[in-house]
Structure formats: C-alpha cells, structure tokens
Design brief:
The structure is a single chain. The protein has 164 residues and is an alpha/beta fold. It has one domain: P-loop containing nucleotide triphosphate hydrolases (Rossmann fold). It contains 4 helices and 8 strands. Helix 1 packs across helix 4. The radius of gyration is 18 Å and the shape is globular. The N and C termini lie close together (11 Å).
C-alpha cells in the first residue's frame, strides 16, 4: 500500500487540501483511504447512543453497522496510542492512503503553509517533507514549492512520488 502525508501547523489548510486531493485522485480512478491524526481526545460517538453506552459499559471495541457504512471504535483504556503502522494494518487495500498530521513520522509528506498562520516552515529541518504547498513564495528551499490552491499539480506531484 502506498502512503503519502499532508502535514503542517494548525490553520494552514491541511484538511482542505486533503479533501481536494481525495476528490481529485478518486476522480482519476484510483482508490484512496485516509488517516487523520488528532492531538486531542476525539469522539465519533455521542452520549445516549447505543454504541456510546456499550463503550461506557467497558467494551474494548464496538462496531456500528448500517446498510451504508460501518465503523469500529477501539478504546485504548490507558494503553499507548498505536503506531501509524499498526493503524495502517487495519485498512483494506487501496491504491493510496493519504495521512493528515504525523509531522515526525517517516513517510513522505507535503507541508501545507499559509503566511497568515505566522509559523515557520517545517521543511528545512524535516527530511520527510518532499514539497511545500503554500499561498506565498519561498526562496532557498531544497524542495519544490507548489501553489496551495493548485490541487491538480499537488496530486500530480504525489502520484509521481508514489509511482501511480
């Protein structure tokens, strides 16, 4: 399975780029899955729902299934967060897995950068970043700088990088 990341600081356009890349790459006939890392506790379930009640009662895993989708929720209950590799092992085979976040993981990435976010680039000190997608010009980088709004060009770059 081929993987490629989209990373950057908060409010730099990562989620918007991920959404546009999934649309663009699937439009080209390839299958795509995504992994999103969050630094805070997230919950896809809500109090009062049956599945929430199952988890609150102590279930390690809860599967919710319907005619249009299914989901597995796995409670860590104090265990360490699984590695990205462990999480990837749970995905069904696809052409490409796009990963949002995981700044320091070993897979190749495009860094999102918006000047208004006021944060320094990660690329100069992170060798896993293969390009910067930005809304401004950057000089002196050892990686290509792509227009953050040119989704097709970013998709082309990623697909070339992974050999698709």
């Amino acid at each position: 399975m081929r993987i490629y990341g989209v990373t950057g600081w908060k409010n730099t356009g990562k989620t918007g780029l991920m959404e546009r890349l999934v649309t663009e790459i699937t439009r080209r006939g390839l299958t795509v899955s995504t992994v999103k890392h969050a630094h805070h506790a997230t919950d896809v379930d809500h109090p009062g729902r049956d599945s929430y009640r199952h988890r609150q009662a102590g279930a390690q895993e809860v599967i919710v299934a319907s005619p249009v989708r299914w989901a597995v929720m796995h409670e860590l209950r104090g265990a360490p967060e699984p590695s990205l590799q462990d999480l990837l092992a749970h995905l069904a085979p696809v052409d490409l897995v796009l990963i949002e976040g995981y700044k320091t993981a070993a897979h190749p990435k495009v860094e999102c950068h918006r000047a208004e976010a006021g944060r320094d680039l990660l690329a100069p000190t992170n060798p896993t970043i293969r390009a910067v997608a930005s809304d401004s010009q950057h000089q002196g980088l050892s990686v290509p700088v792509l227009d953050l709004n040119d989704t097709s060009a970013i998709a082309d770059f990623i697909l070339r990088e992974v050999g698709l």
